[in-house]
């Protein structure tokens, strides 16, 4: 059997009954809290991330007088997002490597769809706090943060801090995980699958179908070019569906613009 | 006019329409997230705190072989719980004084109603994360953490880690803020009132009506013994109502025990 | 027997021979060191705290151009103030929760008697370093810091940094601990009693007899409203005597003003 | 013109005269310092990284009694590896996000070719210190660290800490950067090109031609699936050549085994 | 004029009226606080340092099962020991270079006179906290810490933790500063002279007249071998007098042994 | 036998075959890396230190508008410079006492030969990173940093940041270690000897033969004035030879000026 045929040829039943190319149910709640310029709760299966977007005038010192804006992100897990309690990084006195890595990833993905010139010397800070973790927290953060960022930019337009939210946002962005489990490529891995995956890949894509980030890691078993192709097909399918969910959420509350 | 008459004699209309001795609407949601032994969302007006209780076997090193359990708490604010974004303490690299102070307060209050011998050498860690802050976050944390702790102890009983949750919990505990605003004692201050209060007091009480903590501070104007008496009356009334809400929430999901 | 009768009705002999409503001997030494604007050694029994007050022009950034002054405090224990050596917080790399909590308490109490407008854009920093700890270090710090602050303000007046020390100081402030031991309310607890107290309360009062801070904690046994009343009576008596000692000390060196 | 034809169809002259699919000169010096079990200086053009491998008996606590070994890595830049001096992370008091991210990447890549069972409960620590940075420091670190690790394992075999270095090393691993500059895919970017790249990708591959890590980022312009394919072709070519250099270096000093 | 003649030939009047080879008045108060095994206040002119010695059973992990003891020291300045307030190192979150350097110096000097075998697996921790700083705080710390250490060892002998204090202490140790000011060598520099010194040297000597530490620094003007000889003569004279003061203090309280 | 005769009278054969007054082979490589204003690799036997000098316009805040320049240094060891791997200080989160002490020593020595007025408001930062440690790393750092500093000043002169490198450099400076081993004074101790030395002394001297720093420590056995004299003779001889090596290196590359 060709690797390329893997997805369609068999009826893989996953622990949660999904097909190998099926996303977990996605729910995007806007205005989850009242105060932030953008506030979104994204739920991908049992993974739940609260994403807020803070719009502030001015940019960090190193970017002053450039005429350009800035977008940055911070990711964090609440102590009991996980089955075993994780110590707070504030108490340990430093941000861990994994947190740093994910925060940087989210920031890059969101910056990838923003026109910094149209944003002007304003800053958007995205905070992604994981309330419950069941795999895919970093990709859910990216997908949710995009919606929060759009809301913050619409707020900025209504409050005349920027001319047009649409001009600032060059494209949409979402992300999803894919992986190879027992030799089978799968879409959107929950924790149970993620911990058994030989290969694990996070793929962030724009609404127009191009890649912003690909992070594939195969600590447990290297993967071939053919497997890579299947994984990218799955990721493309998943991201298209996530972007549909983003669009639906953003149309919902209606006429913000 | 006697200070003692202040509450009843006038129809104080507060910004949110409440009487001076009226609590904000309270909502306690159990099982807010799936994984923790106890997980509660408490909402007091616009203040929302997620309280989780983690039950683990064993106690910190300094308490080993004592036959006694331990209860501890950590409090934290999400960056956009507030109108202006607050920097994360993990990023700043240290826990601030206010956070420390509140974490210790919550821990003391909860320990105050726990029979450490009946708990045995087990530990309960309470995590209070403020999703949205509108005054009274520390008192809401205490009130919510109590419910989460009861759930964690019921879990421990079902899983035979302890004999009886009821024997561990000597009494219930709740807390509420009171303060003097423009010379008038008030119950349960939202942020707007809190920032204008001359005197500010947090009062934690047991279900049987005794005090566990009184923290009154009058940086802006000292208060007299008479004012203190009125404030304590208000706090007693508020705590009774909060304890009713706790009981109602704990009966809801039915037969955990 | 009524709780209210407890103090007078019996002849309680405490380990150090004091009556239940009796303070330990207090000694306040001004100009303990030469350089600071105010430098006080306060001894309450075996507890000894060195309190210095530093007067500087200018205020922290967040308070600039407000026309108002600022008062802040830091508390610390020398490693061998205690029976077992305590590790230095500088070496551990962070200030602990207890230290933070006490520093903030001292700051609030002192700010409570200062007219920030009369102080102008000047800052007073109070440093309370415990040379020897035998209970009541935080309340001794408040009582001693007040005297150091007055000396610093007199210095500022003599050096024409402020118009009048008297106008800056709205009232005096002192603090004392009270607690319930074996069911009996007691004034001014040394370490031996403090560690056995079921209820422990620190009360800061102004010279005119009003409260600035009440911090009562009953981790080990809640206390009733009646007990609270007795404790507040004891604290009022103790603070009156401490304020007499403050006045005596401040008159001693004569005509600073 | 098809994107796939881009590489061959034109004679791109890069600032340093290379073809678009040409590596910079590579030099691998073994036994660069005397003491470590493995010590390698790798030079890729002007980028120079010192990679040491430390073999120690025992594994971190969380892995004890598993019968498995562990491989970990730390990456750091000397202050003047860069044109402008970078502050030391030891002085700043914390490891930055970029450093964390790269250290974790190197660790994963090296673990990807190690048979942890054959290693037994031993640990290999890889230290990659950049003496001079001209782009591609993280990929040079991976390529150099592999050689240092082989030397450390040969040392361990000679000293009878492991049975066979060959059984521990399942495959070789190298890494190289690729990117799109002015719309043209390029292999092995020096700093000048790297800073202008719209898309930037690091690809770690095994000697048998499979992927261990793919990290593509397109903060400045998303890339298409076609571009991705060209970049992966370039990376495959580059890694093959780097692996030849690794083999040559490892054969040089002769009969270590 | 020969440099060697400098001291005797002229009547240098220093700001405080001393001769160039004259120590400031020294006062050593034992049992300055009640709790520590050794507690000394040393005053050298206006410099005042509180030195405590803590005797504990057991040694740090790296020294276990060696049969040898350990002596270590920590130095710190209270915030207002100096004319301008110094920020606390606990608040800044790290111990500064100067503090580290001095702590290590004190530790080495005291270890230099201790027979670690006779001490057995016990530890002495010396804490030197500067209450008031007027030059020579590190040398005063050494001189005072020696007395505190002797007291702690006598305590240990009385409490049968060691056989004989005398056998542990191989020799006494004291230290003094010397320097060249306006071309003239001087003994025991107060802050005013210290800040003007071109050459500054701290010399720790044993009771039998040998050197334990010499730290000479000439950031502002190098010094010749001849000048060095004069400085060492002055230091020898000063240390002899300090050792007399140590002996007198240690005989005072009488029959500790 | 007189101590003074010790050096010449016997044929001491050291582990590496040197005479007691013989330096290890010294090699100074300039332009070791390409980017820094000064970049030197100094090898003293097996000790290898990379010294870079960074020239920047402007001085630290506390020195602004003084018209004077500043010279500062940082010392660090790579993890595997030593036989057993040393944890990185960046990972531990703080700079250790030994590192602090040495960094400060190097800074003082280099400042000792710089005319700060001629340097103007410019700063030189010296970074000394130990690639391999075999005793004498701090003295090698000083000797190497001097050469790197000269190169940086020549660069500054060529680039018209300063008028004349020669006017900035008042004198040369080098440093060497001496010690007493088994009762015999020795020059330039490698690790093996250093760890056995009873007395250990680092001596920094100017080209004109005066002392800038003397740091003698005798934790293990005090030393007499006579021994000190012999040690200083040895250090003088060693420094003269090191200064010859510095001159030779600085003349080599020819016409930088």
Describe this structure in words.
Six copies of one chain form a homohexamer. Chain A is of the alpha+beta class and 257 residues long. Chain A has one domain: Ribosomal Protein S5, domain 2. Helices cover 33% and strands 27% of the residues of chain A. Chain A is built from eight helices and nine strands. Chain A has helices at residues 6-9, 89-92, 97-111, 116-119, 137-158, 165-168, 191-194, 225-252, and strands spanning 26-30, 38-44, 47-57, 70-77, 122-132, 173-181, 184-187, 199-206, 211-217. In chain A, the strands form two sheets. Chain A has a five-stranded mixed sheet with strand order 1-2-3-5-4. Chain A starts with 5 loop residues before the first helix and ends in a 5-residue tail after the last helix. The model of chain A has no long low-confidence stretch (mean pLDDT 92). Chains C and E meet through strand 3, helix 2 and strand 5 of C and strand 3, helix 2 and strand 5 of E. Chains A, B, C, D, E, F: It is an enzyme of class 2 (transferase). Chains A, B, C, D, E, F: Phosphate binds at residues 98, 136-138. Chains A, B, C, D, E, F: It comes from Bifidobacterium italicum.
């Amino acid at each position: 059997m060709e690797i390329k045929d893997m997805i369609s040829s068999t009826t893989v039943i996953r622990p949660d009954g999904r097909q190998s190319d099926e996303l977990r149910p996605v729910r995007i709640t806007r205005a989850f809290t009242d105060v932030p310029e953008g506030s979104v709760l994204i739920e991908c299966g049992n993974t739940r991330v609260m994403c807020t977007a803070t719009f502030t005038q001015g940019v960090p010192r190193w970017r002053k007088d450039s005429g350009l804006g800035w977008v940055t992100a911070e990711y964090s897990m609440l102590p009991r997002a996980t089955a075993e309690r994780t110590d707070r990084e504030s108490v340990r006195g430093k941000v861990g490597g994994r947190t740093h890595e994910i925060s940087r990833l989210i920031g890059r993905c969101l910056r990838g769809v923003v026109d910094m010139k149209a944003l002007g010397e304003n800053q958007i800070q995205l905070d992604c706090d994981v309330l419950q973790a069941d795999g895919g927290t970093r990709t859910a953060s990216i997908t949710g943060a995009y919606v929060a960022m759009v809301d913050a930019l619409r707020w900025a337009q209504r409050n005349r801090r920027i001319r047009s939210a649409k001009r600032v946002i060059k494209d949409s962005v979402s992300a999803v995980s894919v992986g190879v489990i027992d030799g089978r490529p799968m879409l959107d891995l929950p924790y149970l699958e993620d911990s058994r995956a030989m290969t694990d890949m996070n793929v962030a894509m724009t609404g127009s179908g191009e890649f912003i980030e690909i992070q594939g890691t195969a600590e447990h078993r290297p993967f071939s070019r053919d497997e890579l192709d299947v994984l990218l097909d799955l990721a493309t399918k998943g991201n298209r569906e996530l972007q549909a969910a983003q669009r639906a959420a953003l149309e919902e509350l209606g006429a913000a613009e």
